[in-house]
Structures are given as C-alpha cells and as structure tokens.
Specification:
13 helices, mainly alpha, about 0% strand
Length: about 300
C-alpha cells in the first residue's frame, strides 16, 4: 500500500516537473531571438541536438523489449507524422513566438485536446457531449481574454502570432489523432524517436535551403540556449511524462500538466518582463479549468 502511494506521488511529481520543463521552451526561444537568430536556424539547432539524445533514451528504454518490425507503409506513415507533428507544428510555434507572449502561446497549445475533439467531430463524425461543449466554450473564452491582453500591447502582430500558434496546435492535434493506432502497435517512445528523426531531417533540409551557414555562425549564447532547449526543455520532460503515463495513466498525467500554463506565465513575467495582469490570470484560470474538466471526465465522456 505504502509502496503504491509512493509510486503514485513520484509519478505526479515527474509529470509536474515535465510540464514545467516543457513550458520553459518558449522562454528559451524568446531569449534566443534577442541574439538575432532566425526561427529556421533555431528549430534546426534544437532538433539536431535533440536527435542523438532521443536515440539514447530510446535505446535505454527499449534495450530489453522486442518490438515488431516496421513495414514500408509504417515508414511512410512515420514520415507524414514526423512532418506534421514535430516539424511543421514546431515551425509554426517558433514563428508565432516572434509576435506574442509566452503566456498566450502556452495557453493556445494547451487547448490541443479541444482541437482533437473538434477534428474528430467534423471529420470522424464523433459525438461531442454537452460537458465537452461547455468545457470548450469556457476554454476559448479564456484564450480570448489572454489574447486581448496581447493585442493591447502588440497590436496587429498578436493576430498573426495567435494564428500561427493555433495552426501549430491544429497540426499537433492532427498528429495525435493519426498516431493513435501506431502508438499501441509500435510503442510511444519508438514513435516519438522516429518522428523526431523525421523532424530533424526536414529541419536540416529547410535550413539548407534557407541559410546553411546559419548553423555555424551564431553567437555562443544561441548554441547554449539550443542545448538547454533540446535537453532540459524537450528530451528530459518527454521522458518524465512518458514514465508518468506508464505508471499512472494519461488522464492523471494530463491533470498534472495543468502546471504548464501557470509556470509559463510566471516565467514570462520573471525572466522576460512580460506583463501579468488580472485579465491574463483570469483567462488562464478559465483555460486550465476547462482542460481539467475534460481530462477529469474523459472516461465518463468516452463511454
């Protein structure tokens, strides 16, 4: 009994730490932009540094587990999943962060579960319950409040940044839906590692066409920030979250992820001198409450 409680608490701590570290990604990107680096170069540096780290983690996790061989169709699916879920989604996010606050960016991305529900409704003809509609309405009202805060200080750029990050969330939601079948068959860590490899490939191709020399001509601070982004804000939190999911399930892990938006807004205020108003905090609270309601009642909703 005590051992089970200890494992449960440790899993919650891992999921919470993972959510906070994930949130630090936007802070690192904002810092890097101060040194004149382009989104294309920053994304390529992040993915190329993260790639060997992901493979090391994958080897460590799966060294004693035999997985089924992949077919040509599987590789083609992984190519598509890696493109939309890890390359294109990340690229839109990096572009959007040039124009909006880290708080608004994180809150928009936090709405990904609602986008999954909407895509499933319009394209897969799945029903949306009354509770889900209420949660989504509350969540999007919260985003509007935070957006109004950004629009007041950043003007028309807030529209562009919001649309780019919303596009990022839509791409990742599409990835989650498309990856559902493959996750169960080939394993989550294997899927993430292969999809990350595809993303690194496309990132390298993109910077090759855009500005190849940008990988080697950045200020030292950009390389250090990219290392932190790839390791502490990407690989390590993903590993922690996956361990938590294996131990206590995705629903409980997602509830711990509520710390993410709060941590982002606080870090944006502390490290980037971004404003933190009552409207922004209230908007964030609406989004967090809506997502908690969706996750908390996931089993009831899907039955």
């Amino acid at each position: 009994m005590f051992k089970a409680q200890k494992q449960y608490l440790s899993s919650i701590v891992m999921a919470s730490i993972g959510a906070v570290l994930f949130s630090g990604k936007a802070i690192i990107i904002k810092y890097a932009y101060r040194y004149g680096v382009s989104p294309e170069a920053l994304l390529a540096l992040r993915m190329l540094i993260a790639l060997p780290l992901f493979w090391c983690v994958y080897w460590f996790v799966s060294r004693n587990n035999k997985k089924p061989a992949l077919s040509k169709t599987d590789y083609l699916k992984l190519l598509g999943l890696g493109f939309i879920g890890y390359f294109f989604s990340s690229y839109l996010d990096f572009l959007g962060l040039q124009f909006i606050s880290v708080g608004l960016e994180r809150i928009i991305l936090y709405l990904t579960p609602t986008i999954v529900i909407l895509i499933s409704y319009f394209f897969l003809h799945k029903k949306i319950t009354r509770l889900q509609w209420y949660a989504m309405i509350v969540g999007y009202l919260g985003v509007i409040l935070v957006f109004l805060q950004d629009a007041g200080s950043k003007g028309e750029n807030a529209w562009l940044g919001t649309l780019l990050v919303l596009g990022s969330a839509c791409m990742y939601a599409a990835y989650l839906i498309a990856a559902g079948e493959m996750v169960n068959r080939i394993g989550s860590m294997r899927l993430v590692t292969y999809a990350t490899s595809v993303s690194a490939l496309f990132s390298a191709i993109q910077i090759g066409f855009h500005e190849p020399s940008a990988l080697f001509t950045q200020m030292p601070q950009v390389y250090w920030l990219s290392l932190v982004n790839a390791s502490i804000c990407t690989v390590i939190p993903m590993f922690l979250v996956m361990l938590a999911i294996q131990r206590v399930g995705s629903s409980v892990t997602a509830q711990a992820g509520i710390l993410g938006p709060l941590a982002t807004i606080l870090m944006g205020w502390y490290f980037l001198d971004e404003t933190m108003t009552l409207m922004q905090v209230f908007g964030m609270a609406l989004v967090v409450a809506a997502m908690w309601l969706l996750v908390r009642n996931r089993e009831t909703i899907t039955n």
